[in-house]
Amino acid sequence: MKTMKKLSAPIGSFITLxxxxxxxxxxIYKNKFWR
Length: 35
Description:
Number of strands: 0
Largest sheet: none
């Protein structure tokens, strides 16, 4: 259980980071082509 928790922490932060980047890219893309 301890090793799983240790592994899941960086994976979760990685997912949130990539999700944030993807979201900002989507917004930039929309603003570029929907004006």
